[in-house]
Amino acid sequence: MKNVLGCFVVFFCMGIICVYLFKVSFQAFYIIALILALSCMLLINKGLSFEVTLCALIFTLGALCLKNSYTTPKTDIGRYIRYRNNGPYIIKGFINSKPVFKDAGSSFIFRVEELGLEGKRYKSCGNIRVAVKGINNFSYGEELILFGSAYRPYRFFTGKIPLLMQVKKSSSVTRLNTNKGSLFKKSAFFLKDNAESVFLRHLSPLAASINRAMILGDKKSIPAAVYDYMVKSATVHIMVVSGFHVGVIAFISGVLLKILRIPRRIRYFGVIFFLILYCFITGASTPVMRATVMGVFLTIGCFLQRETSLKSSLSLAALFILAINPRDLFSISFQLSFASVAAIAYLYPCLKALFQVERLRIGFLKVIANSLLISFSAWLGTAGLIAYYFKIISPVAILANLFIIPLASLLIISGLSLAIASVFPPVLLGAFAGFNELIVFLLLWLGRFFSDLPFAYRYL
Questions:
Q1: What HEC string does 272-322 produce?
Q2: Among 112, 209, 288, 368, who pairs with 221 as Cys (CB 3.0-4.6 Å)?
Q3: Which value, in Å, is the radius of gyration of the alpha carbons in the chain?
Q4: pLDDT tens digits, residue range 373-410?
Q5: d(CA 344, CA 298)
């Protein structure tokens, strides 16, 4: 097995999928895992027998991880709430997400600590999604007592928090004037709010919405028409904070540290610091944290200077993420992020050798050829997933990404520079804002141009 970690990822994922598709008891997998672990110890020097047994153990561990994620404590609020409303409920806890304000109300994720039902109180735990009418000044970490109806959607519901609560009157909310949020999330939301305010103050509404999507991961404000032609040209991935954005931050921070003559070994730790800082600025959402983990592992691989660092680091990042939350395997963002990077890691070298790019004597042509092959590799890796989830095939993506990705990189750099420059004199701020507006215009114009080309896309 040349790529041991890659094989481990495959078998780990197969174990997760097995439990997802078939009903198997936790105890059975636990006993099998113990037997396989003992067998691995006995067969450690037995060559093929050891490798087969180890792969079976990894498969079983993947199954156990997903099975364990389905296990909830006896006090979990989900054990009290049924598909029909059997409330009203009194729930005490604190706001565990950044509240969203619209339609004269608020919605947020609520961390439950105590539950009141039918005159009795129970210690409880877990999260529930709450919608409150009439109040739009909640903050993360605020402790509340809520009175309202709660229910569980039917099984076709695909949201992450399958418990919903509706509070129809502001008088049904008791605010306890205490805050229980984590310092990590508070800092992340504070930085994100500051960056958002800079974009809204100094950019046009359209440019502000694009920057908020591409840099902060808030794509809800993107106009529907813009989102539509970015989907058709298969460049909508730049509107979602992912591995691409983290890669841009890693590259730019590496170049900046090199200009400052930071020693090469220390430079990698600086890159990791900037990646974590960017994760904070975006509000530390799950997709960004996932992409940051991938970026950190890839940076560590470069630090170790191993030939197979990209493949091994990618595999290690996947194992790390799935071990923490195996349900991420079924997330579209996880699949697209790892599929694109894996395609570049595995397909690009083969295509490069097939077309003999290294034989090109002209440097400019070599750069174009490599860029096209990287774009083509990423498109091949994600085309099947995009066709399955979004029912569209966009061959124009190979050409479009060749132009869109450099512009998107410039937009990320200019947007972050704008946010940082807000503490400097207004003259500098105006220059960054003007450059950002220009990049947004070119980016959207190119996206529309490529989506309007003949045979650019086809709906399935």
A1: HHHHHHHHHHCCCCHHHHHHHHHHHHHHHHHHHCCCCHHHHHHHHHHHHHH
A2: 209
A3: 25
A4: 887 888 888 888 888 888 888 888 888 888 888 888 88
A5: 13
C-alpha–C-alpha distance, residues 72 and 78, integer Å: 9
8 A C-beta contact, residue 152 and residue 162: yes
For the chain, the 3-state helix, strand and coil shares in percent, each to the nearest 5, are 65, 15, 25
The last residue of one of the domains, among 23, 40, 69, is 69
Residue of higher predicted confidence among 323 and 177: 323
Count of alpha carbons within 13 angstroms of residue 211, beta-carbon side: 34
Q: What is the pLDDT of residues 92-108, one digit of tens each?
A: 999 988 888 877 788 89
Residues 21 and 147 in one domain: no
**Rounded to whole angstroms, what are the CA distances from 196 to 108, 149, 226, 243?**
19, 34, 20, 21
Contact at 8 Å (CB) between 107 and 132? yes
Could you report the per-residue pLDDT of 204-233, keeping only the tens digit for each? Answer: 999 999 988 888 877 777 888 888 888 888
Determine if the peptide bond prior to 73 is cis (ω within 30°).
no
Question: Average pLDDT of the chain?
Answer: 83
Listed in sequence order, the DSSP H helices in 331-396 are 332-354, 363-390
Same domain? 84 vs 54: no
Question: Quick one: 9 and 95 in the same domain?
Answer: no
Give the Cα separation of 199 and 144 in Å (integer): 32
Which domain, by its residues, includes 421? Answer: 189-459
**55 neighbors 131 (Cβ within 8 angstroms):** no
* Amino acid letter for position 53: T
pLDDT digits (tens, 9 = 90+) for 104-120: 788 899 999 998 877 78
Q: Which two tokens stand for residue 393?
A: 């095939």
